[in-house]
Amino acid sequence: MSKLHAHAVRRVFLFAPLIFCVSVAVSFSSVSSGTGFLVGELPVVVTNYHIAAGAKQIRITFRDGRTAKGKVLRLDRRNDLALIGFDKAPEVEARFRIAHSDRVKPGQEVYVMGYPRPGELGNSLSITKGMIAPIVGFNGDNGQFRVAAQMSRGNSGGPLVDAKGRVIGVVCSGPASTTSGPGKVDVPQEANFAVKSSLLKSMLADFAEEDVPDEGELPDLTGDKIFAAYRDAVVFIEASGKPEKAEKVEPSGGRERQPRNAGLGIWRKVVRKAREKNEAAGWARKARDNVAKGNWAEAIRAATAAIALDPTLSGPYADRCFAYYKRTLYDDAVADCESAVDLDPINDLAYSYRALAYCEKGLIDQALLDAVRAVDLSPSNMSY
After folding, report:
1. Can you give the residue range of the structural domain that contains 70?
2. Higher pLDDT, 384 or 193
3. How many domains does the chain fold into?
4. Which of 312, 332, 314 is nearest to 322 (CA)?
């Protein structure tokens, strides 16, 4: 590896969030592979940035064996996300819906679908049950979940789904690969990460130029039912033409890289947190401005970005609640207002917006209670 390449790797290790999203699928040859999946009616495959970036050729293999040529449409290096277009595809009966990741709770049951250990396991699609550990990723990253589920190389880019079969995240990483035996067989790991679906929703909304709803409530499903329903929507991806001998960067779940100066490491963490809060505040302002202008899709997109960066803010939940209400997504509106008042019990706007959503749902008693609460909190605002 050249000195320039080594310097670049060191800089990536120190500053890029992507470093915690590379170890499940990185290849040491010019071909890397991973998993992708289809969402809604969009003609794209969702996968990871580190799988698709820099590839000269991409081949998508569907479960029935048919293949399609892929083309990179969008890349998000910071969040390790990529959208890949394709020239043709078999008919897929059910594609994934997307749920709001900001409603996910620690201990919640989840499933991971993907193509682990390609070649060794015959490129077979698998599903693994697990649960959400902390709702933040490595080093407190608010854009990720930590997932307690067995994953191996090849799972990168696959969907992390809830018990209703809705996508709540995109698998992006695990700890350093563990090997055993003379053949150094890959051993599945249980400390892994996934990019939150709120970031994917924003990326898809920007691509499609409209919001991507989660399509309401669905019944709980068992793992075998989820697999049967959505197996055709999960694809195997091979990306070729990448540089030979790609350097593998390991998250701290593997070999712990100690900073030369521990105080400097803490300072960087503080700076990163402050930067995220500033960015979140900026997106929150954009959400509020777009609500005032009646730009509901833009308001939803901006509020979602603010929540992803700082889930402790009450305002963006309330703003997104009202935007959902205006777009007749009343269940989503109620859920967001509940999050808003949980974070800030004196958020009068959240109570008033939820009252409106309750009215549309025919829940007049709950609407009256929320309206009274809003008036108690802000008596001068007679609009309630």
Report:
1. 3-240
2. 193
3. 2
4. 332
